[in-house]
């Protein structure tokens, strides 16, 4: 095979890979959203609760960075979670300009109940591949993402 043929094959496979990854992610995300909605939360609310549940109190701005959401959007989500009594705002003890989000007792109880169910749902959603294939995918997709990031 000449270089032109290899280039075309690589180019065609790159396009196909993008389509397959996009469709797979859409299907996976649809199932994850469905699962989270069954807990009367949206994806962003769940993400905020999950970060606070596993990482502890955190400045609202830092939560946005962790889950890749703008600070203005996080403020809205924290408002909604406060109304549900799952999160409260607390002024930073060292800098009054910084507001921390804290998961409440009710929020902790909710996450302690639903997070194991969520993990089980993820295992089912990702059940199309076995454990060794998941390890391979994690390794290779991470490498692909790092390559793209460094371009």
UniProtKB/TrEMBL annotation:
GO biological process, one term: response to stress
Swiss-Prot/TrEMBL keywords: DNA-binding, Transcription, Transcription regulation
SMART domains in UniProt: HTH_MARR
Gene Ontology MF annotations: DNA binding; DNA-binding transcription factor activity
InterPro entries with a match to the protein in the record: HTH_MarR-typ, MarR/SlyA-like, WH-like_DNA-bd_sf, WH_DNA-bd_sf
UniProt-listed Gene3D superfamilies: Winged helix-like DNA-binding domain superfamily/Winged helix DNA-binding domain
Domain HTH marR-type: 11-146
Protein name: MarR family transcriptional regulator
Protein's organism: Oceanobacillus arenosus
Source taxonomy: Bacteria, Bacillati, Bacillota, Bacilli, Bacillales
